[in-house]
Amino acid sequence: MTVPKKLVLIGNGMAGVRAIEHLLKLAPDTYEITIFGAEPHPNYNRIMLSTVLAGSTELKDIIINDWDWYKDNNITLHTNQAIKKIDTQRKVVITESGMEASYDEVVIATGSKPFMLPIPGADKEGVIAFRDIQDCEKMFSAAKSYKKATVIGAGLLGLEAARGLLNLGMEVTVIHKHPYIMERQLDEAASLMLRKELESQGMKFLLSKHSASITGRGRVKELQFTDGSHLATDLIVMAVGIRPNVDLAKSSGIDYNNGILVDDFMNTNIPHVSALGECVEHRGVAYGLVAPLYEQGAVLAKRLAGVETAGYAGSVTSTKLKVSGVDVFSAGRFVETEGSRALRIQDDMAGTYKKIVIRNGKLIGAVLFGDTADGASLFASIKSGESIEGREKELLLGISSDLLGKSGGSASRLENMPDDEIVCGCNGVTKGAIGDAVLNKGCNTFGELKACTKASASCGGCKADVEGLLHFYAGDAVGESAKEGICGCTSLSRDEIVEQIQSMRLMTVKEVMHVLDWNNKEGCSKCRPSLNYYLGMLFPEDYVDEKESRFTNERYHANIQKDGTYSVVPRIYGGVTTPADLIKIASVAEKFNVPLVKFTGGQRLDLFGVKKEDLPKMWEELEMASGHAYGKTLRTVKTCVGNTFCRFGTQDAMAMGIKMEKAFERLNAPAKFKLAVSGCPRNCAEATIKDLGVVAIDGAWEIHVGGNAGVKVRACDLLTTVKTEEEVMEWTSAYLQYYRETGQWNERTAHWIDRVGLDTVKKALEKQEDRLALVERVQKALSVTTDPWKEIVDNDELRKNFEPIAGPLPV
Ligand SMILES: Cc1cc2nc3c(=O)[nH]c(=O)nc-3n(C[C@H](O)[C@H](O)[C@H](O)COP(=O)(O)OP(=O)(O)OC[C@H]3O[C@@H](n4cnc5c(N)ncnc54)[C@H](O)[C@@H]3O)c2cc1C
Ligand SMILES: NC(=O)c1ccc[n+]([C@@H]2O[C@H](COP(=O)([O-])OP(=O)(O)OC[C@H]3O[C@@H](n4cnc5c(N)ncnc54)[C@H](O)[C@@H]3O)[C@@H](O)[C@H]2O)c1
Ligand code: SF4
Ligand code: FES
Fold it and tell me: Which residue of 34, 400, 520, 630 is 20 to 30 Å from 307, comparing CA positions?
């Protein structure tokens, strides 16, 4: 029997222990393993400290390998024992307390040290980093006795610390030296959106500020800045970056630069001394995220096990901010430079932003805000280096997964992925582990899979892939997914929330968040507007709309354009106008120097390039109804000329359209909706790609629903055929109200119909008594609507909101 060799691991952290886990699988009996850790704990998931601080996870739940694991695997663990030096001649490691252990192979995995600004007073009580369990405990304890917290550094760590401190009830100010936050991961547009969102959650920011000194007797009292200003504070968390821990390299004659220098197989310059993790520098790069460190661990484990392996060639990284209710994703080289170009799309209404950066026909970087669902597939495309030529726009518009599927991406990408490839970077979960959990451990819902493997339990960036693999392995056996909340602030679904609001008669957004125990007390850009909508839908006569829960366009009743100007769109019912109205529009456009007047696809005139301060004056002169070209409400009713002039027309499409537009203008809905009426089956008004389209046939009207001509075209389904205009109105009213009552906020009818099913909708509307009850409710909702511009024009206080203010564009 061969005697096992002695392997010593220095650093009981994420990278080192991960490599040992791998090694145990490859060569369980080759080494007698000893681990030294400076911390008093078994191996834990450092990433999850942010969620622990935020209160969504408990410390006991972040242990990766408990004490028994070490025993079960014959590993000798020395906690609270920092290694001071490696005597590479004698092949022994020496602890600070003088203990020695000999080795045949030694692995250094000592991680990083948080960088502490070397400013006077940085050693005072109450000035801490955020790196380990001890720091977390210090924050918990500070929050019990003190009120004001300051975080220096608005990077990933600083913002996660700040969110956690807010959750602990502290007032939090984040100091950043750059004019915009998370500049290492985001471009300016996404950064601005993120800041606005975090500000709305209660975080305060001081930007372009440089810390000079910390004052206070014993404990911190004030942070002084180089510009002479200062900030009173009881706690300072420094989150201004990390530095690879090269102490052992220094004391033991091992080559280092920024980090301990390693080759592609994790060898240092000294034989039998390897290193990996945040403490190393590989090909000039020191990584600060776990995914690359796990890749390094896999290579090292194979080398130590004597298994042939390709070397580690470096990693492209992606990050996701772990702040509840905020979805931010960044990957690769997200800033365009010479030779690369960027495509971007920003939707202020939905609060989303997406940017992709392309070089030589390949995707090299991406930034997502608000909706990060495409993160995993974009990241896969960046990593694969495949050509995306001709598919750039589809990728940007979010229909990439389908297209990638055809070209070796998404579905087939997951299928072809090797078993040992890591799917969840944060928790090091491989495709094989997911397959094992589904096929052998009975996990057939996303929730079970998450609980069993920890995949998707940290930043959530891998969710799409984990779900994809669940479907791949479980096929039709996929169970009802564990309940997902409407956003990260709650685990309640839309239906549960609506039901509880109704049964408890909760009347404000704050009340809902409080009573239903939101884990993020301020809510986020997803839940606040949706709650505002649900409350208005349920209690149209009693609920007071909360303007602050609406997006910019709805607050200013105009569409903000990319240059910060707005547009003015008067309502033109059914697309039918008069010379007098046209003259009025033309003269207002001339008087206010409107740079562009355009016919819209919805048969009306759009005046572009309007300054915010001119909006009330223009509407005052126009004296026309708002066309609601913004907001989640009726846009237009497109009509053809119908039988009034057209020789094919069988019905009066214009009159029908005008009647519908007058009836439903200003009606709030889960998402915007468009209607159309065509006077005969030739369908010149393209009614069958609208949210609801009416098409005249001989002696009757067909009502079509659920159409959309957006990114993905969806043709309508026929809902019913009726004889009279009154019946058209009855069915349309009932249909719209049913959508209002069952749709999820921000869900267009096309998606809604696909979700609830056409048959469900038909069933809900088939009985006239049900239709009439719905009609009555929609009438109630309509009865309290007012024209926003009429109100603003006549109200000096409201007009003040449009006066010019200095500062960045609202988002
Ligand atoms: C709050 C927080 C949130 C994070 N979130 C994310 C995230 O969402 N996604 C992501 O990818 N990354 C995240 N990271 C970074 C991630 O945690 C690190 O990349 C990872 O932990 C590095 O692993 P490591 O093993 O190299 O270092 P560590 O995990 O730091 O382990 C090193 C260990 O070595 C010990 N040690 C040091 N010197 C000695 C010595 N001389 N003798 C013995 N032991 C020693 C240390 O005490 C430590 O326990 C986060 C980090 C923090 C602090
Ligand atoms: N969600 C995640 O992936 C996650 C979360 C937490 C931490 N981490 C990792 O942990 C490590 C540490 O995070 P980090 O945010 O400290 O590092 P970082 O280097 O990414 O960010 C530090 C930030 O502090 C700012 N800064 C530097 N000096 C400053 C000063 N004097 N005043 C004000 N601001 C200053 C920088 O401009 C930078 O934006 C990183 O490797 C990070 O990737 C990742
Ligand atoms: S849809 Fe029919 S009625 Fe309307 S314009 Fe076209 S052909 Fe004429
Ligand atoms: S990649 Fe962060 S949870 Fe999976």
Answer: 34
For Cα atoms 168, 169, 175, give the angle at the middle one, nearest 5 degrees: 90
Assigned token pair, 274: 């390897």
**54 alpha carbon, closest ligand:** 1
Distance from the Cα of residue 408 to its chain's centroid = 26
pLDDT at 482: 45
Distance 318 CA to ligand 4 centre (A): 10
Provide the H-helix boundaries in 10-88: 14-26, 49-53, 67-72
Indicate which atom in ligand 2 lies nearest the CA of residue 278: 41
pLDDT in tens, 226-254: 999 999 999 999 999 999 999 999 999 99
Written as six digits, the tokens of 255 are 């080559």
Q: Taking a C-beta distance cutoff of 8 angstroms, is the pair 229, 144 a contact? A: no
pLDDT digits (tens, 9 = 90+) for 391-427: 888 778 765 443 333 333 456 678 878 887 788 888 8
Q: Is 290 in the pocket of ligand 1 (CB under 6 A)?
A: yes
- The number of the ligand 3 atom at minimal distance from the alpha carbon of 680 is 2
Domains of the chain by range and CATH? 5-112+244-305 (3.50.50.60), 127-240 (3.50.50.60), 494-550 (no CATH), 631-786 (3.30.413.10)
Q: Which of ligand 1's atoms lies nearest the C-alpha of 290?
A: 11
Q: pLDDT tens, 337-352?
A: 889 999 998 877 678 8
Is there an atom of ligand 1 within 6 Å of 426 CB?
Answer: yes
Widest pairwise Cα distance in the chain: 102
CA–CA separation, 23 and 301 (whole Å): 5
ipTM: 0.93
